[in-house]
Amino acid sequence: MASSSVRPSLVMADSRGRIYDHPDLLMIVRQGNEFSLPRPDELMPLPDESELFLLPGRQAMGLNPENGQVEVLEELAVAAFVSPAHTLTAHPAYETTEEAPTLPLFAYGALGFANGRFYVCARKVDDDPRQIFKDVPRKLLEKKARDLLALYPENRLIRHLVSQCALIYACPAARNLCLGRYEAPLPVSQVCNARCVGCISHQEKGSKICATPQNRMGFTPTATEIVEVMRYHEANEKDRPIYSFGQGCEGEPLTRADLLEEAVSLFRKGGGTGTVNLNSNASMPEAVARLAEAGLSSLRVSLNSARPEPYTRYYRPQGYDFSRVRESIKVAKAKGIYVSLNLLFFPGFTDTEEETEALTALVQETRIDCIQLRNLNIDPELYLDLMEGVATGPRLGFANFRKRLKKSCPALHFGYFNPFVAPSPA
Predict the structure, then answer these.
(1) CATH fold of 188-415, please?
(2) Domain residue spans of the chain
(3) What is the 3-state secondary structure (H, E, C) of the chain?
(4) For residue range 83-108, what is the model confidence (pLDDT) as tens digits?
(5) What is the reported pTM?
């Protein structure tokens, strides 16, 4: 926890990429269109396994405490990509040059330096250690990966998850599958019925985003291949196994609803236990109902906003609208499914008055169980341009945003990861 006396200095980088702090200027941050000093309750020491990014074409900005003036430097701005289980509360402040490229699809946290260490504007929102790998030797992971490939040489889904996701993209879920722990990924779909501006696996021709962190899978697995992954994971994670459809390397899993229903039914009829989860845009209420009957345990619905206009601007849905998303949540709850929101949090937009009111109303109306406070991976200025003209009202700040939701919705939980959902008593 940051002390109220901490006043971090500006962090910047020179033309050779060397990162250092400014001897005189203080760190300032951006939340929406507001620039300010960071609030003490929004600062924390940079968590382990975080990364630092140089921001090309973006000049660092800092506050001169002697005269109260903001100074723009020639040096590059620097941001932090925080490790999982942490939610950003502010973006870095900088001035963008005309030739600046659009930033890749990561989340950019405001970074400062004080008392011999880096500080970032973020809060820890989940104590689950499932994506901590600092004590896992690379050689152990590679051995586990080879062993898994050898066990299922004909399974294309396992080959994709191991060779591509775990060993190339360092996907935490795929690495955990190799290690036999926590949550196993089950990507299934090559296609999507939305055109999300910040899609991390596919960008259409002409997009300002020149590269994605992952490539979309190039095949559709069979139900047998899917169930083999589930049974392997169940045999290794014996206490709290979770199996999740809907991953970063695919489109929308509900576009393969028949395949999902077949796989879940096969797994459950064969005695399969644990939490079967669906990460989804929740665009097809009828399919959600069928999956619930087949043995689905939980549904995580991705949202950037609980209001139709900003939702549509970002997701750009094809053949559905926000009302279908709301209906899917209601259907899932009526079927006894545990429902979380994968809330793509953007400081200075998500934590504003009108956004908070809409989110509160959605939670109260549909009885959502949990909000996973995930970071929206996008160039901050690209998102602000996308939302230009959308009314938001005053900014509450991250802490007050959470307090307000909890006060209005006492049963609501917060987190970052998909929870293990214990089976209901017979």
Answers:
(1) TIM Barrel (3.20.20)
(2) 9-124, 188-415
(3) CCCCCCCCEEEEECCCCCEEEEEEEEECEEECCEEECCCHHHEEECCCCCEEEEEEEEEEEEEECCCCEEEEEEEEEEEEECCCCEEECCEECEEECCCCCCCCCCCCEEEEEECCEEEEEEEECCCCCCCCCCCCCHHHHHHHHHHHHHHCCCCHHHHHHHHHHHCCCCCHHHHHHHHCCCEEEECCCCCCCECCCCCCCCCCCCCCCCCCCCCCCCCCCCHHHHHHHHHHHHHHCCCCCEEEECCCCCCCHHHHHHHHHHHHHHHHHCCCCCEEEEEECCCCHHHHHHHHHHCCCEEEEEECCCCHHHHHHHHCECCCCHHHHHHHHHHHHHCCCEEEEEEEECCCCCCEHHHHHHHHHHHHHHCCCEEEEEECCCCHHHHHHHCCCCCCCCECCHHHHHHHHHHHCCCCEEECCCCCCCCCCC
(4) 999 999 999 999 999 999 999 999 99
(5) 0.95
